[in-house]
Design a protein that fits this description.
308 residues, 16 strands, 2 helices, single chain
Length: 308
């Protein structure tokens, strides 16, 4: 027998495992819808980020809660979560069944409902879902139409068994607000609207911190080369402190200046020209010898000669 649920109503569950199927009618202006589940402790919060099961983390480490791929049926699209209730750890007090809309609010999603099936051993009598006859159905109606996340219902412990409660509680902050409400650490730095591969993803902080060790460091950002003025090559290179300046190029040897033709060579200042030794020449008038020998005097001009 299938129970038609109203908001706030609950029913006991005899099934040891359930399959919660979220169903809606798609369209060109209809946002995409995703199902998710959160495993909560007695304090109403997740024990760790691994307790959030959704499209980017489709399987709990225990394997007892799973997110299944979407299916297209004749009457619409479905997104499914399976929970093995009987095998869950005693520290799990509730399992929240949630939905999030991507690309718009739930006011644009028609025919949204949750169908609960018995996923335990038994014959499959519903060809549309591959499950047994539905245990319950709940038509989810957003209160304002601006909600982008909804808690459709919850599975909770009651004594030694489990019960299902229909809720329909909405959030205008989307999947991020829904996750943080229950203690999930969400990294939304790379979230891009409309891209299912880059939607907000919770990152396990302990794993992220451990993963930083041993990871290769990024290459340093290349620094631009210093600019030089066009005439920089012509500037003299200054030596470093404590180093002698570079040796100058040796000067080209200078050639002695030859005197002009017909002019005697001038002696350096303070040094008269020394006559070259040579043979004495006798003066026919006086008989004295004149010449440039070692004892000969140079010829004198008329102003230095006595009148005879």
């Amino acid at each position: 027998m299938t129970h038609t649920m109203l908001k706030g109503s609950n029913i006991p569950l005899e099934a040891t495992a359930v399959r919660a199927v979220l169903r809606w009618t798609p369209g060109s202006e209809v946002p995409d819808v995703d199902a998710s589940a959160l495993l909560l402790g007695p304090d109403g919060r997740v024990r760790s980020d691994e307790d959030f099961i959704f499209y980017n983390q489709p399987r709990h480490p225990s394997g007892l809660v799973r997110h299944l791929p979407k299916k297209r049926l004749a009457g619409g699209l479905t997104d499914t979560v399976e929970v093995e209730l009987a095998a869950l750890e005693p520290s799990v007090d509730r399992v929240v069944l949630a939905a999030s809309a991507d690309g718009g609010a739930f006011g644009l999603v028609p025919d949204l409902c949750v169908v609960l099936y018995d996923a335990g051993p038994g014959p499959a009598t519903d060809p549309a879902t591959g499950g047994s006859e539905p245990i319950a159905t709940f038509d989810v109606r957003p209160e304002t139409g601006d909600e982008t996340a909804l808690i459709c219902g919850e599975l909770y412990r009651r004594g030694d068994g489990w019960k299902f409660r229909a809720l329909g509680q909405g959030y205008a902050t989307g999947l991020v607000g829904l996750a943080t409400e229950f203690g999930i650490s969400v990294d939304e730095g790379d979230a891009a609207e409309g891209d299912p591969e880059s939607r907000p993803q919770p990152q396990l902080r302990r794993e992220a911190q451990q993963g930083q060790q041993g990871q290769p460091q990024p290459e340093p950002w290349p620094q631009p080369e210093p600019t030089r003025s066009p005439d920089a090559a012509t500037q003299p290179v200054q030596p470093g402190y404590g180093y002698p300046p570079p040796a100058a190029h040796p000067a080209e040897p200078t050639q002695p200046v030859q005197p002009a033709y017909g002019y005697p060579q001038h002696a350096a200042y303070g040094y008269p020209n020394q006559p070259q030794p040579g043979p004495a020449v006798p003066d026919p008038a006086t008989g004295h010898q004149h010449g440039f020998g070692p004892t000969a005097l140079p010829p004198q001009g008329p102003q230095f000669q006595k009148n005879r």
